[in-house]
Amino acid sequence: MAPSEQPRFEYLDTGGTTFAKYADARTNRRDPFFIVPAGGADVCNIPVPVRRVKRE
Question: How much of the chain exceeds pLDDT 90, in percent?
Answer without folding.
Answer: 41
